[in-house]
Amino acid sequence: MAADVAAEAAEAPLPSAPAAELSPAAVAAKLKTLFPALFGGNGFKPVKLRVQVDIQARAPGQFSKAQLSGFLRRYTGNTGYLIALGRATHRFDLDGEQAGELSEEHRAAAREELARRRALQQERVELEQTQARNRAGLLHDYERTTLTLANFCALKGVTEEELPGLLEIAKAERAAQPAREARPQFAPRNARPNPRDARETRDSKGGERAPRGPRNRPGR
User: Fold this and answer.
1) Residue 59, Cβ neighbours under 10 Å: how many?
2) Burial (CB count within 10 angstroms: exposed 0-12, middle 13-18, buried 19+), residue 70
3) What is the model's pTM?
4) Where is the signal peptide (predicted)?
5) I want to staple 84 with a disulfide (CB 3.0 to 4.6 A). Which of 44, 60, 150, 204 is the partner?
6) What residue ranges do the domains of the chain occupy?
7) CATH classification of 2-102, choosing from 3.90.1150.10, 1.20.1560.10, 1.10.3210.10, 1.10.1710.10?
8) Per-residue pLDDT tens for 122-165?
9) What is the pLDDT of residues 184-212, one digit of tens each?
């Protein structure tokens, strides 16, 4: 499980020499340079358990215990890493070679965490959509109300101090929405075509028609 790797980093022995002060980004970049087979590339690979011990053995004095612990905690908590953990069958060492099978327990824990994050994300999206609809309704009513400011705020359940900020957000959200296209105008369903219009259209295409000859009446 991702938490196991991060926890093991805290138990690893301290390096023999003090490590230089590095930012989290610098630690990640340095590990990627030193061990590209594991930390490089475009995707994530489940790391070998107690991989921090191997790092300290292969790069002595370059990383402190706290630096490795912090890096592994962030790395193994990344959503992309959890996706890889849920799908993979093996862990990998610093050279990118398989280093032990992944237990079904760890894969299941990764999938459960991903499901939990997806549910939280969905809740946030739904909450944001609800709040945006409420702000749009507030703006719509405010632009049409005849109530006093105090009465309007009391009716909507907001304070007079909160209202300007909510209205500004609503206006920005409205301005960011794509303009609605005008609906095409259709002729009434039961409307009959005007014979004169049809005749004029036909004449404009074929020119004037030739005069008709005399009709032959029956009996003559």
Assistant:
1) 17
2) middle
3) 0.64
4) none
5) 44
6) 2-102, 111-176
7) 1.10.1710.10
8) 999 999 999 999 999 999 999 999 999 999 999 999 999 999 99
9) 555 556 656 565 655 555 555 555 555 55
